[in-house]
Each structure stands twice: as structure tokens, then as C-alpha cells.
Hints:
Blueprint: E1 2-7, E2 15-17, E3 29-31, E4 33-38, E5 49-54, E6 58-59, E7 61-66, E8 78-87, E9 93-98, E10 104-109, E11 115-119, E12 122-130, E13 133-141, E14 148-154, E15 162-163, E16 168-178, E17 194-197, E18 204-210, E19 214-216, E20 233-241, E21 247-254, E22 262-270, E23 276-284, E24 291-297, E25 303-309, E26 315-321, E27 327-332, E28 337-344, E29 349-358, E30 372-382, E31 397-399, E32 404-407, H1 409-412, E33 419-431, E34 437-446, E35 449-456, E36 462-468, E37 471-475, E38 487-494, E39 497-502, E40 505-509, E41 519-522, E42 533-543
Antiparallel strand pairs: 1-18, 2-17, 3-7, 4-5, 5-16, 6-15, 7-14, 8-13, 8-16, 9-10, 9-14, 10-11, 12-13, 18-42, 19-31, 20-21, 21-30, 22-29, 23-28, 23-30, 24-25, 24-29, 25-26, 27-28, 32-41, 33-38, 33-42, 34-35, 34-41, 35-36, 36-37, 38-39, 39-40
Amino acid sequence: MRVDYTQGAELTPTVYQNIGYTDFSQDWAIENSTLTESQTTAPDGTTPVYELTENTSTSRHRLYRGFPNIMTLVVGQDYTVSAYVKKVSSGRFFLINSSALNGIKGFLNLDTGVATLTNGTGTISVTDEGGGWYRLSVTAQATSTNGFVYMQLQNAQTDSNYTGTGASMLIYGPQLEEGTTASDFVENTTGSPKFITGATYGPRVPMILVEPSATNSFLYSQPTSALAFGNSATKTFNDAIAPNGEIEAFRITHNGASGSVNFRATSSITFGSDSMVLSVWAKAGSGGNNYFTWSFQNLGGAVVRAGFKLEGDGETQLITSGNGGHTLQIETYPDGWYRCIIIGNTQSSGTTTQFLYTVSGYNESSSIAGGSVLLWGFQVETGSVATSYIPTSGSTAQRAADDLVISGGDFTDFYNASEGTWYCEAVPKGNDGSENYTFILEYGTANTDRVGFFYYVADGSLSVTGFNSNSQYYNQTKLGDSTNQLARLSYSYESGNHKSAINGTSDSDTDTVVPPANQLKLGKRIVGTNGSLVGHIKRVLFWPYSSDRL
């Protein structure tokens, strides 16, 4: 059994931009000041921003919003208020004050950029955004459900009345959000809260990695001096930490010479006519490089060139398609790594594969001197899914299939032949290319007597199916696309009462059959080797009672 760490089912809270009308067009009050549009560029490159100008009265000079116009706060919850500010006049301070957040007051000296917390229990932070802009944020726990957010000019590091002289400042991007960190500003031109981040899978949790046997046909998963290099690339072996935590990443750097910026890897790889999967991990290196392109020759000698964008969620582009269709995939990994994947037909034997990188787009001719990319874990395998890394060093290498079986007394000791309930959580990824369906789990005695949780490759749907004496007695209709998503399946049985549920959708039947069973297989079928799962299994539970008694 191999335990792998992948995304689990723990959800992080949804975070909102709780300030509406961030353009100050509605629901903001202005005291002893004027607010006008300015075409000065904001830190994110947009316009307009807004200039707050004090009048000459002796009072406070500010704009504010009440929490009833934003949301009802949760007492004891951490909140962060932030805004961008830029000096226009000297001798002034920018103050963020919230009566609902323990009366917190944070000052920013617009001449020096120094921030100070003068009231309330909380924290203050300031970041230099460039071009004279600062972002000031204050964090504190809510001490009441209602209150105000004030943003104002001050002539000193104190919240008090003063006589204005017409001084002003630029302000942009007010934001109130749950938590202790100011997220990227989210514009909100409505009166309702707006998502900053939705609920997402949280901490990485261990799951069983289940895969069929696979062979890496690329002879050097880690590049060596035995491979040829282009005339404008500098190679550096073992230059950085790879996704496996070891210092094994290989760096290609554009050294300023003319010509294509590439690294050519030539090896005698024998391919069949079946679909092949080429994969490698890549990471943007120095010089601002954030693109990686990979080209090879497919059947008939036509060139396939695929581009991968190594930032954000990653993007792909098929630049040259060759003689057939190819599917591109990109997977995100920690620390800025991406797994770049090409699926389709390749050359039948002896291929030259070029690994080209660019710094400003998918066209490799746009490279600049000093730009680099990190690479690790080259792999070429038969099938339609990129499996886990198989290292090679001068010859092909094979990884054995995962064989996860509970049988004999280990199975019959907990199994109840008359009634019971199974529950499983899994993340199916695909299959080994040999069948149109794979098995998340199956239990029974033989191919004729079995119950299985199925994943169908063509549409990513799921099913719970039961056979007795080779006759199907139970089948829940296929449901949903669960590829690369956490799937939850259950099956409860007793004579005359069969129930199942797939991701919350239930089904039932009154058949009296309860097939015999003496073994459980995870990620494969009871008999045969085809249909092996490629994916993760998080949890398998069994109760020796039907669901009606749980």
C-alpha cells in the first residue's frame, strides 16, 4: 500500500468582500471634506481612484460606512479592514478606525510610510505598493455586531478635531473581510457581500494511491550529460529542490546566444500505436520565465508542440498538432511546480524530444538572456493518464500494480453475510487505457458474485452494481462527472432491501439476493487485471448492519 498526500475534504471558510460600493458611489457618508475622481493609476493599474480633500472647518475630515450597510458582524470573529492610500499633501496621516472592532485605530504617516496602532487590541500592517502607494490594514476581533468603518485625514497621530487647510490624499480599494490577512482587493459595485475566495479543500490529507502497472520508456528521467543540448541553453544539474523534496531539479538557462533556446533529449524509445502519455514537472525559474513548451515527433514524423503557462492555476495551448489529436493537461503542485502532460499518439520508435522554454508567451523565439526553467521527472508511458513518477537511468523502468486485497479470515472476521453497509470516499483520475471503466472497490467471491463501486472513464460517472450467479440484481444509475473530484459512495444490503447513494443521490431496490463474499479488492476487480483504478482512496468503512439499523 502506498500512502500519498493529496487534497482532502476539509473545507476552508468562504471569505467575502463585505464592503459594497467600493467606488464610494453609494452608502458612504463624507464629513467636512470633498471626494472627487482622479485619473491617477491605482496599484493594480486601474482608474479611477478618489481624492479626499479636507475643508477649512475645525472638525474631523473623513468618509465612513456603517456596518448595517455592510453586514452583521460575528462577535469574537477576526476581521481585517484595509485600503490603499497615496500622499498628495505633506503633513498628514491616514487613519482607519472601526468602532465595531474593539475601537481599533491605525495611523499611517503619509510622509514616511510608518504605520502605528494607537487604540484597541489587534494588529496593523503596511505594504509599499510602489508609485507612492501604500496599503494599510488593521485586524481585530469584533466586539459588537454593528459599528462603523472610518477612513480619514489627520494632522497628527491622534484622532481629533483640527482646522483643515485643503490638504488631500488619494484613496482606493476599501475592503473588509473575515480573517487576519488582507487578501487581494476585490472590487464590489453592489450593496451585497462579494466572494473573495470560496470554500476550498484545505489541508493535504493522506490517501491510498492506487495505480496499475506502468513503464517509463524515457531512458533518463533525470537529464544527464549524455543528452544533447541546444546552442543557447546552459544546463545545471541538481540545481534546486524537486517535487520529491530532493535537490534533483534540472535548470535550463538562456545564455544569450542566438538560435532556438532548447534542450534536445534523444533516446531510443519504442512506442506502440496506442495512446501515450508524456509528462514532466516544470517550474518557472529566473529572469521572469513563466512559460514552458515541449515538442516531439508523432506518428509520421509530424511535430507536436505544446505550451504550458507556469503561473496561477496554469494554462495550456496546443501550438502545433502534428498528425493527430492531442490532449494537454497541467496539474498544480506545491512550491510553484506544475506537472505538464501531453496525451496522444507519438512516433513509433526513436524520438527526438525538444524541451523549449519562453519568457513572454508560447512562442519560444521570445526568450531573453538569463531566463530559466526548472524541470524534473520526465516520463513516457502507455495509456491515457499520467501515473506517479517512475525514475529511470539509462533504461526503461516498471512500477508494479498496486495489489490491495483483504481476503480469507481477515475479511470474514468483519463481514456480515446477511446485512451490512459499505461507505467509500475516493478521487478517481482515469484508467490504465485497457477498459472503459475502473473499480474503486469490489467485493465478492468471483466474477459471478460481486458488488462493486464503478467509475466510468468516458463520462466520469459513478455507479453501484451487484451481480449474483452472473446475473445483475442491482444497479444504481450512473451519476455525475467525478473525475479528479472527491466522490462519496455507499451501499446497504439485506434480503429485500438494497440501498445506495452516490454523492448524496440515493436509490433503492427490494430484491431478495445477497451474494456470497470472501474478499475485498481496492482499486481493481475481483477477477482479472483490467479496469484498475488510477486515483486515490481516502476512506473505506463497513458496518455489519443495514442502513435502517444504523
